User: Fold this.
Amino acid sequence: MYPSGICGPNDYGNGYFTNFIIDFVSGKLSAGFPGSFNSVDVRDLAEGVIACIEKGGNGEGYILSNSKVYMADLFHLIAKYTGAKDVKTIVPLPVIKVIAFFGSLATKFSKKPILITTFAIYNLIRNNDFSCEKAKRVLGFNPRPYEETIRDMVLWLKNDGRI
Assistant:
């Protein structure tokens, strides 16, 4: 089984995606950055793991993913469900790479995590168009619409008093 990035409600471990939403809503991101990602809802992943055990072929691999989402669309979704100010400016990739490089260096010394790292930028600019067709066909995998995941994450964060 090969999951794409994992996100969803009830992330009490404060994963990257959860922190991203909190930072966005709190106004820490005055500008956006380009790229895309592919992330599977943790609830769909859990069902996919069970389906792998019950229906998967011995030695077979299954990609458990969702559809490719562009960062600009993600900013709009979070703004839609939170009422936060939407991102109007997308910083060009060369500038983001420089910011990420120096931010990654600063993290080594300060030990404080940052949102925009060289690894995060790598993940946003690589090919994020994964196909879960085999998992759908063999396992009955059916990932929910990505907008539902964002809505549910925002509701959970609001109910938990984190945004």
